[in-house]
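TA notes, week 10

Several of you asked for a full example with nothing omitted. So below is the full record: structure tokens for the whole chain, then the designed sequence directly under it. When grading your own attempts, check the secondary structure regions first.
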């Protein structure tokens, strides 16, 4: 490591922070206000609310003994005050003296009772995003690489590991302490609204995401460290703010698999759980073990954050309906203030433009065009790698064009452009084919929300603080009109960038350095049609193609054995006549492809890059051998759930729990996770492709397989 690294609580803050740049939402400082669902009016300027992680069951469980500790005897009919119950978690005790960043490590006796278990850590996220973070022996612990026992807390290694686990579990909190602190700082959640499945959904917000720190390093840039599944926030609505193991494992691995394919994404740093009986998370199928994911991104600001500040007509026409309530929630109507908060809109736009995206000198229009470009490039890469997000709601689309929110996502198995990976999307609004147009839909909502700022800037070449003060409806309308005028044609530009980026991606996957118009049809379209018509696997077909030698295509024996191998490795089982038909169709396409690759211009381009061998090497470096398929996720989740619960579910009473079994279960769960993480982060390695055979190699080869037929195109009915 070139940079000196520091334990998490000592990481430096960036020169600007979200909390110093953006307004805070009005929340009372009663402990319950951090946990009570609160709908903020569109006119309130704030973006974020201060609160502390609370990785505890919800509703809160309180034993009689705990009530007694609070001085309440329930048997005598005395009442427990919810504020007293919640106050036990207030991090008021200073654990460490001030670090270089001016913050303190705080906790409380009750908070220290959390028993976090670190399940996994991503070495590549650590290296890419937080190279200045010292995690002690945490990576070794997760790799089961520790000879006897983990480093003691008296050692530097042990301290760094413990600090990492404490902060990531919320057992301890990094914050400025005391009222007199000049720049108060501490964990926070943000407010956003959004369109879900095309319909205005009102306020959503970070219902289970709590950010704990921002930091910056030379190589890793600005990073926000966020916990997902860390408990109730004011945006949790009716839910518990928690996450089940299944959803944590899916996101932990999904982010890192997507990053390894060079698709922009939020990253996963670590995954934690806690002993099953302490925190069972109840979902459709009963209690499941919990998870807490730590994810990283330069920013988690989504389109929905802007919609919250300027909700527009959709929001005015549709007030939120309270299920089971007595009708419309009236205090959401705002009369004169329905325009939202244009000052908050300006400051949020400025924050993302300048502090996050480094575009100080650009106009707001240029910045929005950049946001559009980044998202167009992102979705193009999704298409090229068959990544399906599953829920492209406007609250799941970021300003920096990073893939976010790994819910029912999937990688394409058998190629079908109409494939729908989300069980709850029967009409296929977010099908593979529709992804670019749904990103466009989301961007349209962003352009609409930002219209006053873009338009004002276009007229005055500057949007000063207080620009909207005293503005009439007509003024605002004229800014919006101006925005329409300057943004005109952006949809076409989005489509062009998206198509162009896709084209580049496809050409690389086919190992072509030059482009001809006929490639769209003869190479790309025909190939995809073949995969679809014969139900062949998307990724393994490309990997097979990365061994095809066009120079030998006139050798009919070579062609026929290549085709037959290709069909075998891209299907689970095909009746022999279907396999023959597929082989015939493929070999005619391969002839066209070979002729294309052998053309002079194309050959000349490859001569400089190592000829045919060099070309195949390059194809293998971008066509993955390992794909994080649904069957793999299901398998690893099932094994981890079993390992983490068996010691408890196999006994009748608490005191029968075998601690050794618990410990071994944790080790098994880590081992399962690290194996798949390793393959996900190095997907192009020749896993299991070795000539010799061993148990390991066979296992790798199995994990690179298509899995059982019934798991192809599997839709996850993901409990979250
Ligand atoms: P998602 O589908 O993950 O984008 O979530 C949609 C909204 O529901 C977001 O505001 C989430 O923060 C919120 N949400 C999802 N799951 C939970 C949960 N278990 N507890 C609280 N809020 C949640
Ligand atoms: Mg979301």
């Amino acid at each position: 490591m070139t940079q000196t690294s520091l334990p998490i609580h000592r990481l430096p803050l960036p020169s600007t922070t979200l909390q110093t740049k953006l307004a805070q939402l009005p929340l009372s400082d009663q402990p319950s206000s951090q946990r009570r669902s609160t709908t903020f009016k569109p006119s309130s300027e704030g973006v974020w609310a201060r609160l502390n992680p609370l990785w505890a069951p919800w509703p809160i469980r309180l034993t009689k003994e705990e009530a007694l500790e609070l001085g309440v005897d329930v048997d005598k009919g005395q009442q427990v005050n919810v504020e007293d119950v919640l106050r036990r978690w207030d991090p008021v005790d200073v654990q460490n003296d001030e670090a270089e960043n001016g913050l303190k490590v705080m906790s409380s006796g009750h908070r220290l009772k959390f028993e976090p278990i670190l399940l996994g850590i991503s070495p590549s996220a650590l290296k890419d995003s937080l190279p200045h973070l010292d995690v002690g022996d945490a990576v070794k612990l997760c790799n089961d690489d520790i000879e006897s026992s983990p480093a003691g807390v008296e050692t530097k290694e042990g301290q760094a590991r413990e600090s990492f686990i404490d902060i990531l579990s919320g057992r301890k909190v990094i914050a400025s302490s005391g009222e007199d602190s000049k720049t108060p700082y501490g964990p926070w959640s943000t407010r956003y609204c959004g369109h879900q499945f095309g319909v205005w959904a009102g306020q959503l917000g970070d219902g289970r995401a709590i950010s704990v720190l921002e930091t910056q390093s030379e190589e890793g840039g600005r990073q926000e460290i966020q916990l997902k599944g860390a408990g109730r926030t004011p945006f949790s609505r009716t839910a518990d703010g928690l996450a089940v193991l299944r959803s944590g494992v899916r996101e932990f691995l999904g982010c890192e698999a997507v990053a390894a394919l060079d698709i922009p994404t939020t990253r996963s740093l670590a995954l934690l759980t806690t002993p099953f009986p302490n925190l069972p998370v109840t979902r459709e199928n009963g209690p499941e073990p919990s998870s807490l994911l730590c994810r990283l991104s330069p920013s988690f600001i989504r389109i929905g954050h802007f919609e919250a500040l300027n909700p527009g007509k959709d929001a005015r026409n549709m007030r939120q309906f309270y299920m089971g309530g007595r009708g419309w929630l009236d205090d959401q109507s705002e009369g004169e203030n329905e325009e939202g908060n244009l000052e908050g809109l300006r400051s949020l736009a400025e924050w993302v433009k300048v502090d996050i995206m480094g575009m100080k000198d650009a106009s707001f229009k240029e910045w929005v065009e950049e946001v559009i470009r980044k998202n167009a490039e992102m979705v193009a890469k999704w298409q090229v790698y068959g990544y399906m997000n599953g829920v492209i709601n406007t609250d799941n689309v970021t300003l920096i064009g990073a893939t976010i929110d790994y819910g029912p996502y999937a990688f394409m198995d058998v190629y079908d452009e109409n494939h729908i990976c989300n069980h709850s999307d029967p009409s296929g609004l977010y099908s593979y084919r529709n992804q670019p147009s749904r990103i466009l839909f989301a961007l349209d909502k962003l352009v609409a929300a930002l219209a006053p700022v873009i338009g004002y800037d276009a007229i005055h070449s500057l949007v000063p603080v207080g620009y909207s003060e005293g503005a009439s409806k007509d003024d605002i309308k004229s800014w919006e009109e101006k925005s329409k005028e300057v943004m005109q044609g952006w949809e076409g530009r989005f489509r062009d960038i998206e198509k162009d980026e896709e084209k580049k991606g496809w050409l690389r996957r086919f190992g072509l350095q030059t482009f001809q118009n006929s490639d769209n049809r003869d190479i790309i379209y025909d190939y995809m049609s073949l995969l679809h018509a014969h139900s062949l696997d998307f990724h393994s077909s490309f990997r097979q193609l990365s061994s095809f030698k066009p120079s030998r295509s006139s050798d009919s024996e070579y062609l026929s054995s290549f085709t037959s191998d290709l069909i075998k490795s891209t299907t689970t089982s095909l009746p022999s006549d279907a396999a023959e038909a597929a082989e015939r169709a493929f070999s005619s396409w391969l002839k066209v492809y070979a002729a294309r690759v052998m053309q002079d211009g194309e050959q000349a381009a490859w001569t400089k890059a190592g000829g045919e061998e060099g070309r195949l090497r390059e194809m293998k470096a971008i066509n993955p051998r390992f794909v994080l398929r649904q069957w793999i996720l299901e398998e690893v989740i099932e094994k981890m759930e079993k390992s983490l619960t068996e010691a408890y579910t196999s006994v009748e009473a608490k005191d029968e729990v075998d601690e050794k079994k618990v410990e071994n279960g944790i080790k098994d769960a880590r081992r399962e996770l690290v194996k798949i993480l390793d393959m996900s982060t190095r997907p192009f390695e020749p896993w299991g492709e070795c000539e010799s055979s061993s148990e390991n190699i066979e296992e790798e080869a199995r994990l690179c397989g298509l899995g059982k037929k019934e798991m192809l195109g599997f839709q996850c009915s993901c409990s979250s």
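The chain has 23 helices and 17 strands. Use that as a sanity check on your answer.
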